[in-house]
Specification:
The chain is of the alpha/beta class. The protein has a single domain, classed as Rossmann fold (3-Layer(aba) Sandwich). Helices cover 30% and strands 34% of the residues. The chain is built from 7 helices and 12 strands. The strands form 3 sheets. Strands 1, 4, 5, 6, 7, 8, 9 and 10 form an 8-stranded mixed sheet that branches. A hairpin with an 8-residue loop joins strand 5 and strand 6. The longest helix has 20 residues. The chain is globular, with a radius of gyration of 18 Å.
């Protein structure tokens, strides 16, 4: 797996990451969503440098100009519901992309720290021979991304695979390396050291879905 850790280079991205973490700021759900969206835009921009382009001529009022335009056929796949603001940030830049949405959640059958990932809702175009971008803001244990990847395989074999995350734990990153192809690219804003006993990233930012859209039952 090829890891692109954006926080290693100082940029305005650091401000948006810090605000998503800050308890005093993340109480504003609209601002939290916007910060995740802006992080998605930056991750998308950096990812775009790794894609493919072809020469095209653009007609202007005074002549023509040759430019290089994106030639990848992109499918953006996001995990509901936490992935929606991140998806929007990516879609702001890849506005011609097709879209896939996947419902994945942690099920605690014994009401303890043990859980399984349940994938229920799935809507996707064919991903065969296309560039698949899977977006999930929090890469904690890595089980959600693996479960979603296994489920989406029935829609085809992507030509390229990119994972986009806001914050991840080292443990989760090591876990997914065993399930994704070696040439998979992981674009991640920040990497934290550990998970707690419930499998949440520490220091992390909390539950991204709840912060973006309110507490669930």
């Amino acid at each position: 797996m090829i890891i692109h850790h954006l926080e290693e280079t100082n940029s305005i991205l650091n401000k948006f990451i810090a605000e998503t973490r800050a308890v005093s700021i993340q109480k504003d759900a609209m601002r939290f969503r916007r910060n995740i969206e802006r992080i998605g835009e930056i991750l998308g921009y950096e990812l775009s440098k790794n894609l493919h382009y072809s020469s095209e001529k653009t007609i202007t009022p005074l002549g023509t100009k040759e430019s290089f335009q994106l030639s990848n056929k992109i499918v953006l796949g996001s995990i509901l519901r936490a992935g929606l603001p991140l998806h929007q940030g990516l879609l702001n830049y890849f506005d011609d992309a097709e879209n896939a949405f996947i419902s994945a959640y942690r099920n605690h059958p014994n009401n303890d720290t043990e859980f399984e990932i349940v994938v229920e809702y799935f809507a996707s175009p064919s991903i065969n021979n296309k560039t698949l971008i899977l977006a999930d803001p929090m890469l904690a244990t890595g089980q959600s991304l693996v479960s979603v990847y296994e489920a989406i395989k029935k829609y085809g074999n992507p030509k390229e695979l990119h994972l986009v995350c806001v914050i991840g734990a080292k443990e989760g990153i090591e876990f997914i390396k065993n399930y994704f192809p070696e040439n998979t690219h992981l674009w991640i804003a920040a990497i934290d050291d550990q998970l707690n006993e419930k499998g949440y990233i520490v220091p992390g930012l909390g539950d991204a879905g709840d912060l973006a859209f309110g507490a669930k039952l």
